[in-house]
Amino acid sequence: MNPLLDTLQTYPFEKLRALFKEVTPKAGLRPISLGIGEPKHPTPALIRDAVVASLDGLAVYPATAGSPALRESIANWIKTRYTLPAIDASTEVLPVSGSREALFALAQAVVDPAAGVKDPARRAIVLCPNPFYQIYEGATLLAGGEPYFVNSDPARNYACDYSQVPEDVWARTQLLYVCSPGNPTGAVLTLDDWRELFALSDRYGFVIASDECYSEIYFDETKPPLGGLEAAHRLGRGFERLVMLSSLSKRSNVPGMRSGFVAGDAAILKRFLLYRTYHGAALSPVWQAASVVAWGDEQHVRENRAKYARKFATVTPMLADVLDVRLPDAAFYLWANVARTGLSDTAFAQRLYADYNVTVLPGSYLARTAHGTNPGQNFVRMALVADVEECIEGAQRIVDFCRSLA
Predict the structure, then answer these.
(1) pLDDT attached to residue 202
(2) What is the mean pLDDT of the chain?
(3) Which residues on adjacent β-strands are paired with residue 361?
(4) Quick one: which of 57, 77, 177, 213 could link to 136 by a disulfide (CB 3.0–4.6 Å)?
(5) Taking phi first (over 0 means left), then psi (-120 to 50 degrees means alpha), and beta for anything else, what does residue 66 get?
(6) Which CATH architecture has domain 3-42+300-404?
């Protein structure tokens, strides 16, 4: 077996199961899970209808590059959403089987492990924010690279301080992952953040992979989150060494479809398509047809955002009375500091589950100890993905739990 498999960390939800293994929740309370970021809003009827109408597509092999109709629908969405003058559907857009699959596969295509074979000290580096989506690390390790974590700073809206990265690390960096809106913090990169990243990429030649799967969950219809391609255009540059990844899962409540895209640098996408042709991860023709419909409709997306806005407007003030928490820039997570309760993040999650049958995810499980600290320590992540009433009930139980600790 590939020895690199032994370098993988235990996934956060496996750690959570181990944490809860010997715990029996108090009887009489229905379970409420705020732990997993899986959308629970109903799948829109227009997408379900499109799936049914496209079932004949099961009789043919899908093209790895996706259908022209799907690439055009994605390109049109990108141009409209990010106010771009143009994007080439044939060379700058590639449909994928969800952003998670593509985030992993991209590292396998981008990272060159050759330098580290003879000398581990020269192994390719992939920069990751910390806390982070765990796929970034796993993708790096299995590509033969070395993850380097850049801690986010709560005092700077969880921005990463790239000025602290040593020169020798930059010299070995081949890929940099960013997540905006961020998981778990919900923070959005600013235009100044992007200006810094582009300057670093120009200087050192690494690829930027911008994970934007939460881009359509935000709270002010007049202020959608800034995207990487949009930032490049606003700063007067092209898409060189830049790709963005997005998905229908959160936007359209279809996580089971595993439908997304990668867009940006045509040279990177050409090579990535070659990799994917052998990888065999083409999107089903049924999902492709339904995705055309989904990317072409915004009404269901606005309705989806309104549901999240209502939940966050109600739940955030409730929790702010007992925890250090505030409305995020975007996404559907609340990132709460639990230090004032006197409990660690793991103890908080375990006792909350035992006493009130509510599941939250310890923040330390979503980060690594780097530069002397684990930036997820003393935080918990709460995913407000259930319906309004269930989220409010879960929040009230958390309030009651915190007050019981006083």
Answers:
(1) 98
(2) 96
(3) 381
(4) 177
(5) left
(6) Alpha-Beta Complex (3.90)
Closest listed residue to residue 294, CA positions, set 41, 40, 45: 45
- Are the C-beta atoms of 391 and 315 separated by less than 8 Å? yes
Per domain, the residue ranges of the chain are 3-42+300-404, 55-297
The number of angstroms, rounded, from the C-alpha of 362 to the middle of its chain's C-alpha atoms is 17
Handedness of CA 254, 32, 324, 342 (dihedral sign): negative
- In the chain, % helix, strand, coil (3-state, to 5) comes to 50, 15, 35
The pLDDT-based confidence of 406 (bands split at 50, 70, 90) is confident
Judge contact between 359 and 377, C-beta under 8 A: no
Q: Element (H or E) spanning 334, and its range?
A: strand 333-337
Place of tokens 């309370």: 29
Is the per-residue pLDDT at 117 higher than 80? no
Q: What are phi and psi of 382, to 5 degrees?
A: -120, 120
For helices 45-53 and 285-295, angle between their N-to-C axes, nearest 10 degrees: 150
d(CA 29, CA 75): 47
**Reported confidence tier of residue 118, pLDDT bands at 50, 70, 90:** confident
How many angstroms separate the first and last alpha carbons of the chain? 52
User: Around Cβ 189, how many Cβ atoms within 10 Å?
Assistant: 25
pTM above 0.90, yes or no: yes
Q: Residue 152 gets which letter from DSSP?
A: E
Dihedral pair phi/psi, residue 322, rounded to 5°:
-125, -15
Q: How many residues does the chain have?
A: 406
Tell me the pLDDT tens digit for each residue of 372-400: 999 999 999 999 999 999 999 999 999 99
Beta bridge partners of 178: 210
| Residue 119 banded pLDDT, cuts 50, 70, 90 | confident
Reported as a single tens digit per residue, the pLDDT across 142-195 is: 999 999 999 999 988 999 999 999 999 999 999 999 999 999 999 999 999 999
CATH number of 55-297: 3.40.640.10
CA distance 268 to 101: 17
